[in-house]
Amino acid sequence: MRLLAIASECFPLVKTGGLADVVGALPGALAPEGIAATTLLPGYPSVLAAIPGAVKLRALPELFGGPARVLAGTAHGLDLLVLEAPHLFDRPGTPYLAPGGGEWEDNALRFAALGATGALLAREEGFDAVHAHDWQAGLALAYLRHGAGRRVPSLFTIHNLAFQGQYPATLFPRLGLPPEAFAMAGLEHYGHVGFLKSGLWYADRITTVSPTYAAEILTPEGGMGLDGLLRGRGAVVDGILNGLDTLEWDPESDARLPSRFSVADPGPRAANKAALQHRMGLAEDAAVPLFAFIGRLAWQKGVDLVLEALPALLEGGAQLAILGSGEAALEARCRAAAVEHPGRVGTFIGFDETVARLLYGGADAVLVPSRFEPCGLTQLCALRYGAPPIVARVGGLADTVIDANEMALAAGTGTGLVFAPGSAQMLAAAMRRAIALWRQGEPWRRLQTNAMACDVSWRRSAGRYAALFRDMVRAESIDA
């Protein structure tokens, strides 16, 4: 089976978050299932630089304001189609934000171009199915539905419902879609052009990245204004957990770690803790528990809860290392905590992959107190690297971490600590519980062993995706 994946980012070519990790890892996971995935990406400078031997597949004389062409190439084991449109993608900054901050003013046209090109390629290049990722690819499914030619079954995956890609209605005439597409039974969303709404309405099947999140988005509390549409399409909504590329994320071979280790030999991990303490300006003391927060400094991720619960951590004699960037006010609060508690709190504002690996491979535990979390890769990385995660019981966090309560400890099944509701008080209680377990020694070592023994790979989830794609193609052939 030939699958066309459409996405705005893909690790290791371009990455702003977990979407890129999934898009980069899933093709390799699907290959043993008999599915050959090709990924369509925008022609950002970093993507074009990775495919110097690419060949022109087709020319697009006019695409939303300028000429473009589709290149075919390979990089990092991935089969790629790249939309080379310099007027849309040859620019500095991130895929979505200009260097001075704020979205590119033409983001709607940039990702409409990605969607229109994806629909064209799906129909004319012999693909059996389409897999569109998040709002940036949502319009591809409107173009598929309303375009002429062969019908291709489609799957739309929601990575985070909070990001919806809504643009003024004045954009619609420029999209080249028929007037009937701008309707409630289409891509219109509260008077705007809704890119995510387009994916949800036009896709044959919908997935999101964990079973619990799939249930949460059907509720008014979790549906972000789209719960009614999602409930109406509930029969085709499913939750499939994300996984990790366990070759890329492997503490036994990770060259970014000062000291590599394994579940059978975790001893060298202590050297990473010492290196982490030194790197973050913490007191170099093996006899204190070290907690880490790794991620966006944003309300969703709950770093404010970490700062509010900080007294419980400090009273327990623990340390805290924070790595991330985001909202200016939260960045300032993290810096202030490090200044106020020298040697106890360390802050790195920004993102550095080597520092991130050091936190995973050296911290005793990783804090993931998200207010909502579609899946989360942070806790999977923490499990893989032997830093039992402390997570809020939401979304994919609830689906991937087994709480080390008294019964779980007795049964030997705990892999981390889970708290609810998502408040500073309950996070503080979970941290106190973790500190007590860490100081007991052997119970924490069992917890760490259980965490590292978890299968966080794509193996099970790839099988579910493959079955879904086969079912889509089979249903299309019956309808035809």
Q: Based on helices, strands and strand pairing, what is the structural class?
A: alpha/beta
Q: Which CATH C-level class of the largest domain is it?
A: Alpha Beta
Radius of gyration: 23 Å
Sum up the overall morphology in one term: globular
**Could you give the order of strands across the largest sheet?**
3-4-5-2-1-6-7-11-12
Distance between the termini: 18 Å
**What's the name of the CATH homologous superfamily of the largest domain?**
Glycogen Phosphorylase B
Catalytic activity: [(1->4)-alpha-D-glucosyl](n) + ADP-alpha-D-glucose = [(1->4)-alpha-D-glucosyl](n+1) + ADP + H(+)
Protein name: Glycogen synthase
Domain Glycosyl transferase family: 288-438
Domain Starch synthase catalytic: 3-231
Describe the overall structure.
The chain starts with a strand and ends with a helix. The strands form three sheets. The protein has a nine-stranded mixed β-sheet with strand order 3-4-5-2-1-6-7-11-12, sandwiched between helices. The protein has a six-stranded parallel β-sheet with strand order 15-14-13-16-17-18, sandwiched between helices. A three-stranded antiparallel β-sheet has the order 8-10-9. Helix 12 (about 330-340) links the parallel strand 14 (about 320-325) and strand 15 (about 345-350). It folds into two domains: about 1-245 and about 460-480, Rossmann fold; about 270-455, Rossmann fold (3-Layer(aba) Sandwich), CATH 3.40.50. Helix 5 (about 140-145) packs across helix 6 (about 195-200), helix 9 (about 270-280) crosses helix 13 (about 355-360) and helix 17 (about 425-440) crosses helix 18 (about 440-455). The model has no long low-confidence stretch (mean pLDDT about 95). About 50% of the residues are buried. The longest helix has 21 residues, at about 460-480. The chain is globular, with a radius of gyration of 23 Å. About 40% of the residues lie in helices and about 20% in strands. It is of the alpha/beta class and about 475 residues long. Pathway: Glycan biosynthesis; glycogen biosynthesis. Belongs to the glycosyltransferase 1 family. Bacterial/plant glycogen synthase subfamily. Synthesizes alpha-1,4-glucan chains using ADP-glucose. GO terms for molecular function: alpha-1,4-glucan glucosyltransferase (ADP-glucose donor) activity. It catalyses: [(1->4)-alpha-D-glucosyl](n) + ADP-alpha-D-glucose = [(1->4)-alpha-D-glucosyl](n+1) + ADP + H(+).
